[in-house]
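Hi P.,

Sorry for the delay on this. The queue was packed all week, but I finally got your sequence through. Input first:
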Amino acid sequence: MHRIPPQHLWIGHAGDLADVRKLIDSGIRTIVDLALNEAPPRFPRDLPYCRLPIVDGTGNDPWMLVTIIDLVSGLIKLEVPLLVSCSAGSSRSPVVVAAALSVVTEQTPEQCLKIVSRAVAHDVNPGLWHDVVEICRSRQLRPLIS
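Then the structure:
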């Protein structure tokens, strides 16, 4: 897991979800899981978990991407300690976190991806990145919580 300071925000991969004690000890209080090909993990009932699986590339429904970005940006705004996870933690999670930070900070998605890349190595799928940036620009997304 990699923290994205100064937010209470981490990016992780499927293996990180297996160590519940480490998640809790890190202060994480909710998880957004974007993995499509991984089995859903089992968590204690009091740990909120939202599984919104997306493809690491083009072909995702725009409503799903909007929902994910709105959810993550809202949780960031509320300062909920949050882990955003996907299979490898190198494409879907950094893309979504960059888009959500763009909403919260009102910076461009590209500027926010640079912030994310300081904390975690990434290998962003160009198709997914293009789709998410287009959604951010066309909707001028705003967080659910102001």
